[in-house]
């Protein structure tokens, strides 16, 4: 039953994406016309975006802007200019629940009809961006963050990334 629900959501996202190329999660209206994916950023929000947990680097077509939480060294990484860069120190991946399910399909593409990138969720657009979930002081307000959680800290005005042990902040 859970797979049917997930397939239904994926199909709805693809259909919605083909007409509007913009998706809001947890709300009815997108903030701005230059957004491909937007989250409900109400005051008091404590929900962030969880990055995919991989064992080592992903295989397939890598593109700049690929984010992962690598459980082999418990670090959040981004692929940039054909090099993996660390966005966190070594954290703790013991809370990560390993997904041993067989993969199927190429994932969901938002913003364009096709993409050369290989990912679970690919945001592909020439003129639209993703707005991260906004959380005020996530180190104080997110009680049980999951390794690989990413958000925008509205108090410090920085990118906040949880590595399983501590929050890492980037200006």
UniProtKB/TrEMBL annotation:
Protein name: WG containing repeat-containing protein
Upper lineage: Bacteria, Pseudomonadati, Bacteroidota, Flavobacteriia, Flavobacteriales
Domain of life: Bacteria
């Amino acid at each position: 039953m859970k797979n049917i629900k997930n397939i239904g959501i994926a199909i709805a996202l693809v259909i919605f994406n083909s007409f509007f190329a913009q998706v809001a999660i947890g709300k009815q209206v997108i903030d701005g016309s230059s957004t491909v994916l937007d989250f409900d950023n109400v005051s008091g929000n404590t929900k962030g975006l969880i990055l995919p947990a991989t064992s080592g680097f992903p295989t397939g077509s890598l593109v700049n802007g690929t984010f992962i939480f690598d459980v082999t060294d418990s670090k959040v990484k981004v692929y940039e200019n054909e090099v993996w860069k660390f966005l966190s120190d070594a954290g703790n991946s013991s809370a990560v629940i390993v997904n041993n399910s067989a993969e199927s399909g190429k994932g969901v593409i938002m913003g364009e009809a096709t993409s050369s990138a290989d990912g679970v969720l690919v945001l592909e657009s020439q003129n639209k961006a993703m707005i991260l979930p906004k959380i005020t002081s996530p180190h104080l307000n997110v009680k049980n963050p999951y390794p690989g959680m990413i958000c925008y800290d509205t108090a410090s005005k920085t990118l906040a990334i949880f590595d399983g042990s501590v929050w890492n902040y980037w200006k």
